[in-house]
Structure formats: structure tokens, C-alpha cells
Amino acid sequence: xxxxxxxxxxxxxxxxxxxxxxxxRERFPQANLNxxxxxLHSVAKQAQVRSEQISRPMYGxxxxxxxxxxxxxxxxxxxxxxxxxxxxxxxxxxILAWGDAGFQSLFVIGAAILFLVALEARIKRKRCLAAIHxxxxxxxxxxxxxxxxxxxxxxxxxxxxxxxPHRTMTAFELTRYLDYCIEMLSLAGKIAALYIxxxxxxxxxxxxxDLEDLTSGLSRKIWQKIxxxxxxxxxxxKPEGTPTAIPGPSTPPSQESST
Length: 259
What we know:
Helices cover about 75% and strands about 0% of the residues. By secondary structure, it is an all-alpha fold. It has a domain at about 5-55 and about 125-155 and about 170-235.
């Protein structure tokens, strides 16, 4: 087993989501983002139980597989022990017919054994993919909450329409709100990684990687909004009537010395 510092600790992830829930509630007590983060906290606690169940061997199913294989082997041995060739001529057609029937029987038996052997992985994969789909839905819900949080309105204020979203946040509050969304998206990816920490299934790993790509892309989009906010804060701090500086070509040093 890998050292603890090389493994994700579900308790630490749950604690981090819980602290984030408190931070959002204390900063924005009326925001619906509180409910989303509370749901993420609930999913994180469920992920701890689910990931442990997925990593645990399914002994009942394995016992059923062993009993099935043992029964088939016992049945074949019984048939072989009772089989006697009568004192009659055995032709080539009889040998071919027996071989074809035996081959078909072995094919069916082998397919049944492979089905039982792979059934455990399929059951675990189905549970894992369902849990990851739940996290993907939460990621899209987080993105919906930040969709109307537009920092450009702080830089370039203008008249609202009847259908315009109600904006009351300052530049600082908007920065915190967007940063909370980024943290939630990152934690959603970490929760998903719990499912494949001890279950190295190719489809499950691919689904987690896709979720990580989704949350990273959404986080980059939100981060671009945060980068606009310092400019908005500087413009709002200027005295009223102060023109906004428009960057232009710099004056060469030679011309500066001559003026």
C-alpha cells in the first residue's frame, strides 16, 4: 500500500468541503451556492462509503464463480468416468460429431465462466460511472451559478433591462464568489478521483479524466473573469470624473530628453 502522503484521504476531502460550505454561508448567507456546496459535501461523504465498497472484493460473487466452475469440472469428470466405448466400429463421422459437440459445450462453458469472472468488474464500473455522472451534473450546476456574475458590468456600468440579472456584489465579493466556484470545481474532481484510487478500471479512469478536463476548463473560464476584477476595482476607486487612461505608444527615450 502506498504511503498516506501519496494517497487521497477521503476524510480530508470531506473536511475541506465542509469548511468551504461554512465559508460560503458566512460570506453569502442568502446565496443559492450554499445549497450546491452542501450537496457537494453530502456527495463527498457518500463517495467515501462508495469508494470503499468498490475497492472491496465481492466475495459472494467470487464464491458463486468458484462453485460454478467446480460443478462444471465435477460434471465433466463424472461423464468421462461413466463413458465406455461399446464393442462396435467407431467411424470418422462419429468422432467428428463428438468433437463438434464437445467443442460447442466447452465454448458455452468457457463463455459462462468469463461472464462470471468479469461480472464483478462490470458491477463496480457501473456504480463508479453513476457516481462520476452525479459529480459531472454538480459541476455544470456550479457553472450555471457563476454564469451571470459578469465583472464587465463593474468596468463598464450601463442601464439594466427588465430581464437583466440583479447585481449587488462589489468587486471584492464577486472575486470571492467566483473563487468559491473554482474551489468547488476542483474538489469535485478530487472526489471523483477517490473512486479510481483502488479501482484501476480503464473506463472508470477515462470518465474521471473527462471530468477533470471539464472542471479544469470551467475553472479557466471563471479565472478569466477574476482577472478582470482588479481593473474594475481600480476604476471604481478613482474619483468621479477622472478619465480612464488609454494605453498608447510609449515615447522613445531620445524624444523625452529633448522635450
